[in-house]
């Protein structure tokens, strides 16, 4: 497996860990028979963790598709790997800014992550213009 493929897996785990951590931290108030109970998410930190989790689920398909497409279309593997690692780092920072209630920085990080996805997606199309 490539580094980028491991980053796809890491991105998936990040979205799961985002919500699991608040459920474990709030174990006394979490009822597993009602995992989507809106009352559990009344707490601001839990609410923001849920938002970060949902955004992670939303961001995952495009990232995974971009990485796989770039690899299948023989994009420059080293650059794909580097951008995928950068995307994962940006997503980790995004989760912390989301939970930490830093909306402007969160939006900036989201935009950077989206730009990285666009770059990965178009790497096969521009590979002839890149130097090795």
TrEMBL record:
Compartments where found: Membrane
Q: Where does the chain cross the membrane?
A: 82-101, 107-126
Superkingdom of source: Bacteria
Q: Does the keyword Transport apply?
A: no
Presence of the UniProt keyword Transmembrane in the record? yes
Print the keywords alphabetically.
Membrane, Transmembrane, Transmembrane helix
The protein's name in its UniProt record: MAPEG family protein
